[in-house]
Design goal:
It is found in: Membrane. It is a multi-pass membrane protein. The protein has 353 residues and is mainly alpha-helical. Helix content is 67%, strand content 5%. The strands form 2 sheets. A two-stranded antiparallel ribbon has the order 1-2. A two-stranded antiparallel sheet has the order 3-4. The longest helix has 48 residues. The chain is globular, with a radius of gyration of 27 Å.
Length: 353
């Protein structure tokens, strides 16, 4: 991994060389983009990567101007730059936090891989939850849930909302090359690919379809639940007796799934069909037609059903393992706990040979 001192240098541009030095190589690319700001010729191209684009100034009812943002093709460049930043931060967390903890815990290869995965995701979900809550506090969702669909299409976003989505998309896209950089085991790759692709699909869909309000509201409780799960798994790897966090996670997981389904049905089934601005228009960013609404609702429902199915199988597996371990303990204890009948011949001198 990047930023690590090596005793032996592998051949240049070999697989091992790229894996060990990927963070340094990515840092060089990011620095080149930043250096582009220093020259007038390249500044207009460099700024496209670093700052969010498509700024629109609107005047409020009281006459004060406010800066809002739309999305467009240039966002791809911005996502790419923050993908590079995500790779660098990933390497820093791995090198200066997780690797040091791994050396103290002496975990097996399987637990070592899961510990690294949970460590990275716990940091990201904590960041996402705090950032998402700070954005929602400025909105009126707590007092008026109808803001999820009122005024659709929500083609204009404040800076914090747009930058939040840019960072979310960049993070989950960076997770794809990290499967190679982190030497993830082959048996773990399909599982990680599933949830990475699901995140990219849903977050990008909410961003493009101007459903960023609903997406943000659903991401915040989901981030809290996932943060609790990965934090509990970190504590479990440090001490296998610390399993209380999984019980709380199981409860919140079910609540989050019900909340997601409720808000989705409320938005796509009752809210958007009653909005005055109906129709399909790419220019206006309006996708409020029955086909799009039903497709979005079906995608969310199928994803929640798949997550519940995996959750139930996980709980059943844990329950079977717990039952088997309890049965094994009982079998081991039962012979010792049986009372032995006193031998009537013991101690009788007539039976001593």
């Amino acid at each position: 991994m990047g930023f690590r001192k090596k005793n032996k240098s592998p051949p240049v541009l070999s697989h091992e060389f790229v894996i060990q030095n990927h963070a340094d190589m990515v840092s060089c690319v990011a620095m080149i983009i930043l250096l582009g700001l220093m020259f007038e010729v390249t500044a207009k191209f460099a700024i496209m990567f670093i700052t969010v684009q498509y700024n629109v100034t609107q005047n409020l009812a009281i006459g004060l101007p406010v800066n809002l943002y739309q999305y467009g093709p240039k966002d791809i460049a911005t996502v790419f730059f923050y993908l590079l930043i995500a790779v660098i931060l990933h390497a820093l967390i791995q090198e200066y936090i997780l690797d040091k903890m791994n050396r103290r815990l002496h975990l097996s290869k399987t637990k070592h891989s899961k510990f690294n995965e949970s460590g990275q995701l716990a940091a990201f979900y904590l960041f996402s939850f705090i950032w998402g809550c700070s954005i929602l506090t400025a909105e009126e969702f707590a007092t008026n849930p109808t803001f999820l669909w009122e005024g659709y299409p929500h083609s204009h976003m404040v800076f914090q909302v747009k930058f939040f989505y840019i960072c979310q998309i960049a993070y989950w896209l960076h997770a794809l090359p990290e499967l190679y950089f982190q030497k993830v085991r082959k048996e773990d790759i399909p599982r990680q690919l599933y949830y990475i692709c699901l995140y990219v699909f849903h977050i990008t869909g909410a961003y493009i379809l101007n459903l960023h309000r609903l997406g943000l509201v659903l991401l915040v409780p989901h981030s809290l639940v996932e943060l609790l799960f990965h934090a509990s798994r970190l504590f479990y790897f440090s001490d296998e007796n610390k399993q209380k966090g999984f019980t709380l996670w199981a409860l919140l997981f079910v609540i989050a799934r019900l909340l997601t389904l409720t808000l989705s049905v409320l938005t796509f089934g009752f809210g958007l069909p009653r909005v005055q601005n109906q129709g399909f228009s790419l220019a206006e960013g309006n996708f409020n037609v029955l086909t799009v609404r039903m497709t979005c609702l079906a995608a969310i429902c199928l994803t929640q059903a798949w997550m519940m199915w995996k959750f139930i199988n996980f709980q059943l597996k844990k329950w079977r393992e717990h039952s088997q371990s309890q049965a094994t303990k009982k079998k081991a204890v039962s012979p010792k706990s049986k009372p032995h009948k006193k031998d009537p011949t013991r101690g009788n001198p007539k039976h001593v040979f």
